[in-house]
Amino acid sequence: MQLPSFSRRRFLEKAVYASGALATHSFSQAVHAAPVPSSIGAEAAAHGILAGCAVNEQGLASDADFRRLVAAQAAIVVPENAMKWRSLRPSPTTFDYSAADRLVDFAEENQLRIRGHNLCWNQALPDWLEGTVNASNAQHLLTDHIRHVVGRYAGRIQSWDVVNEAVNVHDGRPDGLGNSIWLTVLGPGYLDIAFRAARTADPHALLVYNDFGVELDNAEQAAKRDAVFKLVTSLKRNGTPIDAVGIQSHLSATSTDSFGSGLRQFIAGLRRAGFKVLITELDVDDSHVAGDDAMRDRAVAEIYHSYLNLVLDAGVRTILTWGITDRYSWLTEHFPRADKDEARGLPFDEHLRPVDAYWRMVESFGRVRG
Ligand code: G3I
Known about the structure:
The chain is of the alpha/beta class. The protein is about 45% helix and about 15% strand.
């Protein structure tokens, strides 16, 4: 598949600069006359798709160019870390909303929608939790947290990742649940407890179960798809207020397995069962792609394009990338390259210039009838 035609690409390129994302670039002189400002959010919206990205807290607090890029490019944002327990809960009795409020204020000032991430996970927990939580106080601790946090932003946050990554087929339980502090202290009922507390605190927010490792056509991910499907359908059947499933979509440019019929059937099955499906954390690990930046960018962009084509064809209409620029990407730290170079897994590079992935995203959005 080709990139957009030169004239179309040039037009969009002008519009990206005109959007203010790259105000310091010399190109900005020429572009104020660009007829239609363009961005990931706007290009997606033109086709009935809600698109945006995770926002890194450090970038938000200290990098004006980054803030401009996010404001120009995203229609919806989610905090990368600011709403996790570790960030919000300095102690069992206190809340620190400074980073979360900064994100919410920023989004509202720029008329961006907001997702919340996340309310119940086995990671990013404060150090005090393990020594404090037990079978008798756990339910109160969890529901009180959710009541406070969801209640604070009620009516302002469109969707919440209520439970994150609860399934691990390797842990050997028939219900597919993975080992977690919440499972230990509350048993499998912890998911229902969390979803009910979230629904009570904000009856209008879309409540999401979010997970990874369900994208590829291989036996391990097929088993996980199966376990996630059984989990969410059984929760729903038993009256748990769960509305949607988030497919994280941390992909690799060098995976030997691809995505295809397994993911397509998974999404179709979830939608038939009454769930909305969101792509919540899309990015592409290029740590094992050899070659220069141009080769890496092409490999990454190809994954964006084929993946988005698949999920959009399957009816998904919400797409978030996990970051927007390689300047702030968990990939660099978590999947270091042998040459120590930064990851190039997002639609803008570390200099905030759009790369091939950006154009391929736009191209995929363009295939969808608005
Ligand atoms: O809290 C310390 C901070 O005090 C210190 O200044 C900083 C210096 O490096 O480290 C801070 O903690 C880091 C934290 O991010 C905040 O930057 C942790 O070491 C680091 O492990 C943590 O990683 C995050 C990870 O979730 C764990 O919470 C990544 O940024 C974030 O991208 C990643 O996001 C997850 C989603 O929540 C769930 N799905 C997978 C996704 C990628 O792993």
